[in-house]
Amino acid sequence: MTELIDPTFYIKMYEQMLTIRSFEEKAIELFEHNLIRGNIHPCIGQEAVSVGVCLALRREDYMLNTHRGHGNCIAKGADLKRMMAELLGRSTGYCKGKGGSMHIADFEGGNLGANGIVGGGLPIAVGAGISIQNRGTDQVVACFFGDGAVNQGTFHESMNLAAIWKLPVIFICENNQYALSTPIQEAISIPKISDRALAYGIPGVTIDGNDVTEVYIQMRKAVERARSGKGPTLLDCVTYRFYGHFTGDPGRGITYRSKEEMEEWLRRCPIKRLREYLFREGLLSEEKEEEIQSHVKKSIEEAVRFAQESPFPNPEEATQDLFY
Amino acid sequence: MNLRELTNTEAMVEALKEEMTRDPSIFIIGEDLVAHGGIFGQFIGLPEAFPGRVIDTPISETCIVGAGLGAALTGMRPFVDLHFADFTTCAMDEIVNQVAKIRYMFGGQAKIPLVIWAPDGAGLSAAAHHSQSLEAWFIHTPGLKVVSPCFPYDVKGLIKTSIRSDDPIIFFMHKKIFSRKGPVPEEEYVIPLGKAEIKHPGTDVTIITYSIMVLHALEVAEEMEKEGIRVEVLDLRTLWPMDWERIAESVTKTHRVIIAHEACLTCGFGAEISARIQEELFDELDAPIFRVGAYRVPIPFSPPLERFVIPGKESLKKTIYNMFGKEIDSK
Count of A–B CB contacts within 8 Å? Predict the structure, then answer.
């Protein structure tokens, strides 16, 4: 992993994490101004998982995503303009306005889509793994899901099938510790989600999901294992979502999370942590930081402008795209 | 055309064999397929002919269907065997929320060359969990195509078309017709989806039907001929897309309609067809549209109970007599 001694690699991580955060902040702002309808599930606070995981992937590798999936989309290489257009329901969006925030897919970039059903992506990831094995390529599948998904039947069926067939699937639990309002401690009877890997005879690790380098290192190991035909890994990335479940969550989740807990996790912000590390190690200067911030700001502004200038789909398009 | 007699099972195996030879991206996945070619022998010879391409799975219906979808999205053409149509319930999220919606929800980015094959139907004392006809659920779900043929010729042609289709297909086959024989050409052919076929021409009443009820309808048509009622039997073969053109043609010819299926009558496919006919062809009708279907109860085990619940030849005859104001033969 020579990239870990390359300063530009850390700068890349930092810029991607900042991009995700800015995208989400802008999306929340647009939602509050009624320019985005429905709801959004911001991933603010979880950026290190998205970036750490996706930097270990190639473009042709597959990804299955969740309803809280903007960050994973961005990290997998999606175009911010087409993402924002989708959030605004425009015809230039990734799904031509048919999917919205919860259902962005980018098949050309290996992103097989975000699922509104908790645990919905896991069986699809297994199928993509079977396909890779059949076609004999060395691709892998990164399957994201939340801690809420680990008690769905799909989690168990998928882990088992991937394990018995040694499929190249990496199961990544974005463990933000709450399934909507239910704390994970009340939802499982074992200390860690990764303990479940034992039941399927595969490696499982619980990691600090707010440490992007740690996520990257563990993901690289899992990817190498998968690419060499040794089978799946379960990564339990412990993190926190600062904004609660969704834009409609009262007080960013204050009805089920204590103020102290929320403040404590704000102190553990993954971006802040990386930034401090970069300054400490002399990998980032204030000048360089300003340059990155202005670049990120510009790309988000461009995405919003593109989305707002794009037309809404014609109503008749609602009957298209059902069948091939 | 060189015809031979094949059973429905043989026709299906032949179709799969030809398609799997032609296209290496096709594979079959499901429970208990390899040991003896499927629990109905529906894949007999295929595990040996195509090593590694007939995949046995643990009992995980949810994940089998979801995995079929994942493979279909990434360049393969999976043929998923669901053992029994009743087991679709274990994979309803996969079928209804994933398979049916992914292409549309993602703005047409995906194609889904996936066949989900499931034996359905009652009449074998298999009781409530192995006897259902659930096609109406899937016809009701946008994004799915539904096929339910009953003759070997149609089975072979439609299996081939379904495999080649880039849209998800739910393919039902009634368990009681597996060993039924019929002529099948030796030459290559396919049957397009969405095309019904008149299996018995008539001028007095049309029975619109599919699957095993076609066989009952054909027997009734023969018998009615002797009584001077000329029955037209229209076999839909594909339920969705529905062949409205062929339905309208027949209704316009006979002006009387019976719609028959083995599934429960309430909210069955017959209700949809009936509604469409009265909306668009009301002036063509000389009599109310009648429907024939099962009672709205689970399929019971004991033979007399099961016979009572599901429709057959007698229910069709009774309906025709009713329609034409005839007394029912007490025999």
Answer: 139
